[in-house]
Amino acid sequence: MVQHNPAPSPGSVLEVTGVDKSFAGVHALRAVDFELRPGEVHALIGENGAGKSTLIKVMTGVYRPDAGQIRFAGRQRDFRNPLEAQGAGLSTIYQEVNLVPLMSVARNLYLGREPRRFGLVDVGRMNREATQALARYGVHVDVTRPLRTLGLGAQQMVALARAVQVDARVVIMDEPTSSLEPREVETLFSVIRDLRQQSIAVVYVSHRLDELYTICDRVTVMRDGAVVHTGDIHRLERLELISLMLGREMSTVRDKGSTAFDAERAGPRDDRPALRASNLTVRHRVHDVSFDIHPGEVVGLGGLLGAGRSETAKAVVGALATDSGSVEIAGSPMPHRSPAAAIRAGVVLLPEDRKVEGIIPSLSVRENISLAALPRLSRAGVVSKAKQDEIVRFFMDRLRIKASGPDQKVRDLSGGNQQKVLLARWLCLNPKVLLLDEPTRGIDVGAKAEVQALIDELAGDGLGVLLISSDLEELIEGSNRVVVLKDGRVVGELEGAAVTEQELLDTLATAPGPETTAAAATSAVGEEEQR
After folding, report:
1. pLDDT attached to residue 66
2. Nearest Cα to Cα of residue 352 among 440, 421, 480, 417
3. What sections of 38-81 are H helices per DSSP?
């Protein structure tokens, strides 16, 4: 049952009035008004491309508004950069962790405000305080380790701890739970409730409606760069909220509201798998994992964060070196696995972290889409611009990529449109198998439905798909079968009527951990020796 949150304090801590912002003649924001009160949790939602990220960047000094004004803590402000905004008490936690991967966890937590002694950084004190600070957020790690050695969820919690510790009056959270598992989400909500008690305001950006109704007080809905609604979130039905985001009548949303794959889809058409992975092992990460994918089949890879899902996908395409195991494509072995060899064999991977492992932000939409297909579009080393433009136009139309044109920089697109650009890059190669790692992470309801429908269509055309998703509903409703991983091992496989959320949770709950498995193996060896 949804609990209504206490009313926030009166007055405004942040107020945006009549803000406009354009890029290359395209309006990103149109006369936007936004008000944030002390101690409230205010949801900011809308489809990808609605203007949410642009508004956040205007408020925090990344962009200068073309018109309008911003008042913060009772004063008109024109922040020149995010550091100035942070110094004033306006902190932001971005969806893609915006820290320094090669620095230690402690250094990231205190970057720019390190404790000092005799003019030098007091490393011992910094590490002790970092350990204590992160423990309050349920993160128990060696803070001297480089940040990049942590999982995305732990990195996100480090970013949260940093944002809260800089004497913030306002904390902006952009898709803060996209990389978190349920236990970490509850820790995050506990932190947010503490912030509310301290009269610290939170701008909460998320596409997960359950979260919005659990933790938020008010909601502002944006569409096409304009605010279309602001009010108490608990006075809106969920369907009404979705209809405001999409700009459709509630009856239309109700008819087309399902974002799931076709549950009655036919199973595999061919007895020979499109891909077969056998006994894949990566030391300390993946242990003896085997599965297959048939043409026209969507196989889900289930498990909690840290279960080895992403590592398994990377091992298949050779992006992660394996200690043992093999991969066959349509019955033919891949003896020397590498991403390039996988692509030539017709196996492509859409990575989880599109910012680090996917898009090339400084290149255009055209260049990002056609990058992998350039060898096929060239003759004697010269790329055919006509063929390149044809394939780019086709996939921009098919995937409904919202951009001012193919020459727009991909870094200026919304997260959902960046994800579509990545998907277009691989689809233009006509692959046999598509490995999708969190394909709908951080994208809105409308874009999510479009991506899911496209995957369903591709599977219907005979493409084999491996689907990795932290969204259990998406995983269950979108898969013909689900291979369940725990601690890097296959602990079960669900098929047919057994593909349910309860069966998946039961499999994870009852599967033995690595210690139990090792003990059983040792016991078996001992019994064999005695015999």
Report:
1. 93
2. 440
3. 52-59
